[in-house]
Amino acid sequence: MNPAGFLVDTLKVANVRFFNRKYLIALALFILFISLYIYTAPRGVFDGDSGEMTTAVHTLGLAHSTGFPLYVLSAKLFTFVFPFGEFAFRLNIYSALLTALSVALLYVLILEMELSTVAAFLASSTFGLGFSIWRNAGQARIYPLALLFVILLAFIFVRWQKDKHIRYLYWYVLVWGISFGTHLLVLTMIWPLLIMLWQKRDYLRTHVTVLGKAALLFFLPFVQYIYIPIANARHMTTSWGDTGGLMGFLYYITQRQYVYKMIARDWTGIALFFKQMGGVIFSELGAILFMIGIGGLIYFYKENKPLCSALVLASLSNIVIMFSYGNEGDIGFLYRYLFIVHLTVAIGIAYSVTALGRVRNAKWFLVAFLILLIFIELRTNYARNNLRANFIVSDIAQNILETVGPNSILFTTLDAPHGAITYLQSERYRTDVIAVISDQLGFDWYVKDLIWKYPDTFSTGLLTIQGDYLRKNSLRIEEIVQNNLDKRDMYAMFANNKLPDNRTLADDFTITPIGVVNKITAKGDDSKMILAKNIDIWNNYQLRGVFSDTYDKTMEYPLRILYRDALYNLGVSYFKNGFTSQAVDALQYSLKINYTPYAQNELDFIEKQR
């Protein structure tokens, strides 16, 4: 196989006329959507894993498995090419760029399927305005790059269907192999490849070398995974996993760390799962647009059986993965995993427009109706996805780091604040603070990394603590506090911590609220001096968006609750230490953020005692 001839021949067959009116519309779509995505993107680091990913790209460190080497390296390259603005915002722009390209490529894909310009425009616009597609378009996430590859693979498959030329098989396996550096959901795109191999089975029986070349092209891009052990060896701010040796490497890239989340659902919860799944899917486009898309799949199957079968099978695989991974509480946060389902539904919308276009006067009625629905979708999802003034994640990281003392140890919880804290530290802010992910201490690889980075603070004795994950996690927290309490200030984002034998951290230490965290001191220490600092701390906090009630179904909601519960604990501690008026103020503040019966009951009780 001559690589140069292969490329030239393929470009000749593609015969794309970039200045054709249809492709100018694709360019217009790209400009419109990238403008929308950048305008509504948060100005800095945001929720979920975006802080972690931003730090990994910034420092070329190791993100959680599978490491996403293609995303990390390509995003880092983008920040060099586009060196304007805060680093975190540049990665948000990178996601906007990738998603806008996906919308434009989807438009071209639908044209390649020989559907009308109107159908392609309406379907791709609907897709681009979908809740999760839009939301991920403004944050440092891996999904926009994975989405772009999925649409590119679908495009290659459509090209294949026209003449079954073997060059498209080569292109498919090469691009698919490269895409494994994004997200493992690209595994679901095995279905188009299986269909290609089945359609060419007679030819392949007599041309076995084709399979050898295809296998080589598929595995060649996996050289990108060399990045994983290199990043792990650097022990940067973000360093997840231990890839030392072949077994450690395989453990990491196969996500065995998260095996406890796999097949975690009870079969009795199937009905609940599909109820939640329906809610997630309907919230993407709206129930009516979703039903129009599903109806179009019938016509899609009649017109293009191979592609429809491939995408439907990929979508079903997408749903099965959702069922197999996580639990009932996760699905509201894992909506972003369903982009293959949303893509299939969007193509179904294009076929609905095409099918009704063959009925006199029906096409334009449907077009007008779809434009109305798209306008409603735009208004609805704009309200949910306009994050340009949303600073709750970056603010909480700043607030926490301003609260803790110099050279302290901070036990963090939740992905968003820890990721934002490590990002600030990668920008050389408060690097004196040792931020420890409290719920990772049950993993030996994490403890080994801490020992390597801070040998004077964490001892190898931590590794002698054994048992199940939860036991190791809690006992190691206790051990770290015991060993460092006389050397460093200790802080924790949790108010208490459960220990084996029905004990809690408060049984051995004094836990005192200070700002949105808690200070850990020796048992019996007077808390009044610490409590007295809270007034100034809370008065100096940035609390932008904390009082908003728009977070109830988003990943920012736990941060709002963190503020609420911190104020509740502060109010209780104030009252126990004789600061009655301050207790009332703290509890009223907590209720203002988010109402809870227990805070109200505590407030009522205190006011009766006054």
Provide structural commentary.
The chain is mostly helical. It has 29 helices and 7 strands. The chain has a 5-stranded mixed β-sheet, sandwiched between helices. A two-stranded antiparallel sheet has the order 4-5. It is globular and about 80 Å long.
Summarize the structure.
The model has no long low-confidence stretch (mean pLDDT 88). Helix content is 64%, strand content 4%. The chain has helices at 3-14, 21-40, 50-59, 69-81, 87-112, 117-128, 131-136, 143-163, 166-179, 190-199, 201-206, 208-219, 227-234, 245-253, 270-285, 287-303, 305-324, 339-357, 362-385, 392-403, 415-426, 444-453, 469-484, 505-508, 528-532, 534-540, 557-576, 580-593, 597-609; strands at 409-412, 434-437, 490-492, 498-499, 503-504, 509-514, 517-522.
Give a quick set of tags describing it.
single chain, 610 residues, mainly alpha, five-stranded mixed β-sheet, two-stranded antiparallel ribbon
Percent helix, as a range, is 55-70%
Beta-strand percent range: under 5%
Q: Which strand order does the major sheet show? A: 2-1-3-7-6
Give the quaternary arrangement of the chains: single chain
Major sheet description? 5 strands, mixed
What's the layout of helices and strands?
Elements: H1 3-14, H2 21-40, H3 50-59, H4 69-81, H5 87-112, H6 117-128, H7 131-136, H8 143-163, H9 166-179, H10 190-199, H11 201-206, H12 208-219, H13 227-234, H14 245-253, H15 270-285, H16 287-303, H17 305-324, H18 339-357, H19 362-385, H20 392-403, E1 409-412, H21 415-426, E2 434-437, H22 444-453, H23 469-484, E3 490-492, E4 498-499, E5 503-504, H24 505-508, E6 509-514, E7 517-522, H25 528-532, H26 534-540, H27 557-576, H28 580-593, H29 597-609
